[in-house]
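subagent[fold] <- orchestrator: predict structure for attached chain, return tokens only, no commentary.
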Amino acid sequence: MSRREFITLLGGAAAWPFAARAQQPAMPVIGFLDRGSANGMAANLAGFHKGLAETGYTEGKNVSIEYRWADNRNDRLPVLAAELVRRPVAVIAATRSSAPALAAKAATSTIPIVFQTGSDPIKDGLVASFNRPGGNVTGATRLTTELVPKRLGIISELVPKATTIGYLGNSKGIQTTAQVQEMQEATRARGLKLYVAYASNENELDAAFAAIAQSGATGLIEGSDPLFIDRRKQIVDLTISHKIPTIFFERDSVVDGGLMTYSANFADSFRQVGVYVGRILKGEKPANLPVLQPTKFDLIINLKTAKAIGLEIPPTLLTTADEVIE
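subagent[fold] -> orchestrator:
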């Protein structure tokens, strides 16, 4: 072999790794669509990444993620969903309410969507059934409405002499009617009176709490609604100023000073979403993946707040609590 032939052969061999890399498939892209902001999402995102890791995916290593945050403006969701569809992404994770998933579903009938919501996905129009979702949508629900009787039981144990229980709902919320019906049935079964106060925006919250106080309610259950997440601090402050024992539907309210919560574990629900996203990336179809229900529930109590409103927490509740904030 001549020197020129050897150099030509060597040059071709040196190019092989570059050619091989060029032929490798592109890294799949996940679209992450959320109704809120990234603030306070560290634990939830850690759960999501944990679920991805369980199926063999790590962000930046073998999958990339495009994040879109609506900053509590549902009117932005259709635009953000359309951006992800144009990207295009391989799958969309739509989290923290049905609104992102509905926006994504309206934007595409082909890209798989994995939702994470607290409401009933059948009533929301996301899936045909829990066992056979159908179409391009599946996900995980936290079943916040179904937890109403359990929350009422905890409040009844907290204030055993209560005769009237208050309920805070959003008059414009898509889950409100079902939640109030659950409350009516649950209070009736316990022989309690129910007072429902409504607030559809931040300006109506003060009046709602004034009405609850006048009703004689000695315990309050917060309805599950995105508005109440957005106005978390305002609601917490109102429960303390009115000294009304309140059970919230999500953990962050208690971290921010609310009395207690009983809810599905948010981080684990996000982990479930991550697992389904990973399974879909591996080739499974959303239509064949049953809607996941919560497996972990948390009772969290804030003792500092209990002291501030002059309430003694029964020892039975303290011993069963998953977390006590002191």
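orchestrator: received. Logging for downstream: Residues 3-23 form the longest helix (21 residues). The chain has 13 helices and twelve strands.
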